[in-house]
């Protein structure tokens, strides 16, 4: 085990499980923040929330190959190991788990996870197998770290919905804590992929959030027709960005089912493809 000024950095499954088991036997609570690294304020907000609610904070940094499709950006996914360590420590992480792919998957999996609900809409529609990979790695991490609470950002609200389903269906003894989207001053949702935006695209990118705000204003003024709400957001995106709209969709949340009329909890989610970066954002309505 390496120790960086109080924060333990662990690279093996055996060691992370031993630390977690010892803490659980001592009656300590563990908050867990799973990430793929290249940490930004969104990730750090998760760690800071975990810090307030648990005795110990664990974070994992692992770019999980199982959740990348054959034409996706696994190799070029941004990485910054040294910067991540410093940021994690500053955010109050006690134990940082950074395994290699060979450590996490020493042999081919003999049991495959298959997510069958909440995946055929939004980003999941064009990423077959993505959430299967998410479910597989989280199942391993939850077993290794034994967290009382696990923290996920609502920027990827579909992932939160899938993880909540996984935990509910398989009785994992862990509470899933969704945390609100952390934004730049101009409203752009923080993302590891924002670094790929050109200067001109970066100026347009805040219009994603503005489109959601305009739609939200319509809802506050009484609009309940999903098609009209979608149209409002889509029109703003078409007018104010040169990116290609991947989707603008509205569903019940977290079920991610179509709705005829806005009621209860719903999500309006958008994705826009710029030249080298695909950005997502969303807003959740409570009616």
TrEMBL record:
Which of UniProt's keywords are assigned here?
ATP-binding, Cytoplasm, Ligase, Nucleotide-binding, Pantothenate biosynthesis
NCBIfam families, alphabetized? cyt_tran_rel, panC
Q: Which residues form a coiled coil?
A: none
Q: What subunit structure does UniProt give?
A: Homodimer.
Name the reaction it catalyses. (R)-pantoate + beta-alanine + ATP = (R)-pantothenate + AMP + diphosphate + H(+)
For this protein's source organism, the top of the classification is: Bacteria, Bacillati, Bacillota, Bacilli, Bacillales
State the function annotated in the UniProt record: Catalyzes the condensation of pantoate with beta-alanine in an ATP-dependent reaction via a pantoyl-adenylate intermediate.
Q: Which GO terms describe its molecular function?
A: ATP binding; pantoate-beta-alanine ligase activity
The protein in question is named Pantothenate synthetase
EC identifiers of the protein: 6.3.2.1
Further comment: The reaction proceeds by a bi uni uni bi ping pong mechanism.
Query: Record-annotated residues binding (R)-pantoate?
Result: 67, 159
This chain's source organism reads: Weizmannia acidilactici
Q: Where is the active site?
A: 43 (proton donor)
């Amino acid at each position: 085990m390496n120790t960086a000024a109080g924060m333990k950095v662990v690279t093996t499954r055996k060691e992370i499980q031993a630390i977690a088991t010892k803490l659980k036997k001592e009656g300590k609570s563990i908050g867990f923040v799973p990430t793929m690294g290249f940490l930004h304020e969104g990730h750090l907000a998760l760690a800071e929330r975990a810090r307030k609610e648990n005795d110990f904070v664990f974070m994992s940094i692992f770019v999980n190959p199982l959740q990348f499709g054959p034409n996706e950006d696994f190799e070029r996914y941004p990485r910054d190991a040294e910067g991540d360590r410093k940021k994690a420590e500053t955010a109050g992480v006690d134990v940082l788990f950074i395994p290699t792919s060979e450590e996490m998957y020493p042999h081919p999996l003999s049991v495959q996870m298959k997510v069958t609900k909440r995946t055929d809409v939004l980003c999941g529609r064009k990423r077959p197998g993505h959430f299967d990979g998410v479910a597989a790695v989280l199942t391993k991490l939850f077993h290794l770290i034994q967290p009382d609470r696990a923290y996920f950002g609502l920027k990827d609200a579909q992932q939160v919905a899938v993880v909540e389903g996984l935990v509910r269906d398989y009785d994992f003894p862990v509470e899933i804590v969704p945390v609100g989207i952390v934004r730049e001053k101009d409203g752009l949702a923080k993302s590891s992929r924002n670094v790929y935006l050109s200067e001109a695209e970066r100026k347009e990118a805040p219009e994603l959030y503005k489109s959601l705000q305009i739609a939200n204003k319509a809802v506050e003024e009484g609009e309940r027709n999903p098609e009209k709400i979608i149209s409002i957001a889509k029109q703003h995106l078409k007018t104010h960005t040169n990116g290609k709209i991947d989707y603008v969709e509205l569903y019940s949340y977290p079920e991610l089912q179509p709705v005829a009329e806005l009621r209860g909890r719903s999500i309006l989610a958008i994705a826009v493809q710029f030249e080298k970066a695909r950005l997502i954002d969303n807003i959740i309505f409570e009616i």
